[in-house]
Design goal:
By secondary structure, the protein is mainly α. It is built from six helices and three strands. Helix 1 runs antiparallel to helix 5 and helix 3 crosses helix 4.
């Protein structure tokens, strides 16, 4: 039972620390959590508004408002889709990295330095744990055999 308690406590501490860091990022950017989630999604590259809506679980109207607010702050830019003149791509601008890059870079540096001191088998175990923990949280939202309804925020 102790291992279960220790793992859950460690996960809660990790997620609490991430929550606090993300709150600081929101404060530095002057945005809310949905906006930060959108920017995190755009970190992977430009996306169409529909993909942003689906990823965030927002209506198309709420997504359009969110994108407009981020564009007004200079954090995203809309680019026309050359194959579909009705569609646009949304991409993150360098202003986001200028505002919060150092915050997240510090975490990445510390994690990299810390984990590099682990033996290779422990490095693999750490990666597996984080991957498995993420999968457990995702599975809680969609139990096997039960389709999960879209989340509207």
């Amino acid at each position: 039972m102790t291992i279960k308690i220790n793992i859950i406590a460690a996960c809660r501490r990790l997620y609490g620390a991430i929550e606090t860091l993300d709150a600081e990022a929101c404060a530095r950017l002057g945005v809310d959590r949905n906006a930060l989630r959108c920017l995190n999604f755009l970190e992977g590259g430009p996306q169409k508004a529909g993909a942003i809506s689906a990823h965030l679980g927002l209506t198309t109207g709420a997504t359009t408002t969110l994108i407009s607010r981020l564009e007004d702050k200079g954090y995203v830019a809309r680019k026309p889709d050359e194959s579909d003149r009705r569609a646009v791509w949304v991409e993150m601008t360098a202003a986001v990295h200028a505002a919060v890059g150092p915050l997240y870079a510090g975490v990445a540096k510390t994690l990299t330095e810390t984990v590099s001191r682990y033996p290779p088998e422990e490095q693999g175990a750490a990666i597996r744990h984080l991957t498995d923990a993420a999968a457990a949280y995702e599975a809680a939202l969609s139990p096997p055999g039960v389709p999960s309804p879209p989340v509207r925020r």
